[in-house]
Design goal:
The protein is of the alpha+beta class. It has helices at 3-17, 290-301, 306-320, 326-337, 343-356; strands at 25-27, 42-44, 48-50, 55-60, 71-74, 79-81, 87-90, 96-101, 108-114, 123-126, 130-132, 137-142, 152-155, 158-159, 161-165, 169-173, 181-189, 192-204, 217-225, 232-237, 243-245, 250-254, 262-269, 276-281. Among the domains are: 203-281, Immunoglobulin-like (Sandwich); 290-356, no CATH class. Strands 11, 13, 14, 17, 18, 19, 21 and 23 form an eight-stranded mixed beta sheet that branches. A five-stranded mixed beta sheet has the order 3-9-8-5-6, covered by helices on one side. Strands 1-24-20-22 form a four-stranded antiparallel beta sheet, with no helix packed on it. The longest helix has 15 residues, at 3-17. The two termini are 33 Å apart.
């Protein structure tokens, strides 16, 4: 790659990644309440890999920015380190389950490695209909490059950053210059081109001037740009000692839809002060990847015990039917996901949920 082009691409990466926080965070204070535990880094790994085909993963800091120089150990024994773009390349050798770990932390991610098949044409087979503008999202298909930078992706006419990649999946992040609304997605790889359309939405979080007072109720207004459809938002209270949400520290709210698309949430001051909260667009379930979900759950079953193991077996029974009962499997999985698993088991259960929900 010419040096000037390489420098230009690194500048673009830096511009995109400077805003790669998990999604809109509204802060009414420069000081955020402390937490008992420091959150781990996040490993971004495609759910589906192909044996013997290159793949790319990424690591994000607890603040959502790419993490440079992070060493990861893969379950096949390979050790990789993230480069200046926060990504690392590797080659999964065998079909089966692969787990990436950051030593000394609980950070884990799992992938289902499929056997090699004859390469087909470049295509996008699945993707979300709507995503938050600042969130990463995954598209599935065939004949992508596992080396992330070899894929050329445009979203809304702007270059999108490929965080992670395999021949079956790309994990993408929109440019901060991309406008909310319906956007054309174009993927170019190996001389082929695959177009699709997606809706990008932006959540505009509200603030309360001067913070809250003890015992006083206030209303936050959350506005959504990019769609007139009513959408579900996931709210997390990051300052529970200062404010209280009406229905707990984590709750869902639904916007009204229409040209002025907004939702309101009531907060009550626990004590005077500034506070912060996080807002995330609720993910829309897509087409379930039953095979991958079964593979992750079978691996998880070997590590689980007691009620958790029985819950996994119950979900597998629903997926093993001739016509897999996806709706009931998802319902049962919601109970399982609330269990207090950790380490590799947690990573496998999380990956199973993403496969089951088509995310």
């Amino acid at each position: 790659m010419p040096r000037a082009l390489c420098a230009k691409r690194l500048l673009l990466i830096a511009a995109i990644l400077a805003t790669s926080v998990a999604h809109a965070r509204a802060q009414s204070s420069a000081v955020q309440t402390s937490h008992d535990e420091t959150p781990d880094q996040t490993i971004v790994l495609p759910l589906q890999l192909v044996a013997g085909e290159p793949a790319t993963l990424a690591v994000l800091s607890p603040e959502g920015r790419v993490a440079v120089g992070v060493k990861l150990v893969l379950s096949n024994g390979e050790v990789v380190t993230t480069d200046a773009s926060g990504r690392a390349h590797f080659l999964p050798p065998d079909a089966g389950i692969l787990i990436a770990r950051i030593p000394g932390t609980e950070a884990r991610a799992a992938a289902d490695v499929a056997p090699q098949t004859n390469a087909g044409k470049l295509e996008i087979a699945k993707m979300p209909a709507m995503v938050a503008l600042k969130d990463r999202f995954t598209i599935g298909g065939n004949d992508f490059y596992g080396d992330a930078d070899r894929n050329r992706v445009e979203l809304g006419g702007k270059p999108a950053f490929v965080l992670a990649a395999s021949p079956r999946e790309l994990v993408l992040l929109a440019s901060p210059e991309t406008a909310p609304g319906k956007a054309q997605l174009d993927v170019r790889a190996g001389g082929g081109e695959a177009p699709a359309e997606i809706t990008l939405v932006d959540v505009l979080p509200d603030t309360i001037q001067g913070g809250v007072r003890m015992g006083k109720k206030e209303k936050l207004v959350l506005r959504v740009r990019g769609t007139t459809r009513a959408v579900e938002l996931d709210m997390r209270n990051l300052s529970p000692k200062i404010v209280q949400f009406k229905h707990g520290d984590r709750q869902r709210v639904r916007t009204l839809g229409g040209a002025d698309n907004f939702a309101t949430i009531e907060v009550k001051g626990q004590r005077a002060g500034k506070f912060s909260y996080a807002v995330t667009l609720e993910a829309q379930p897509g087409t379930a990847n039953v095979q991958a979900a079964e593979d992750f759950l079978e691996a998880a079953k070997k590590l689980a015990a007691g009620d958790e193991k029985r819950g996994i077996e119950n979900i597998l029974k629903k997926l093993a039917r001739k016509n897999a009962d996806i709706r009931r499997a998802r319902k049962e999985f919601a109970k399982l996901h609330a269990a207090s698993s950790a380490g590799d088991l947690q990573a496998l259960i999380r990956a199973a949920g993403e496969a089951l929900n088509g995310q």
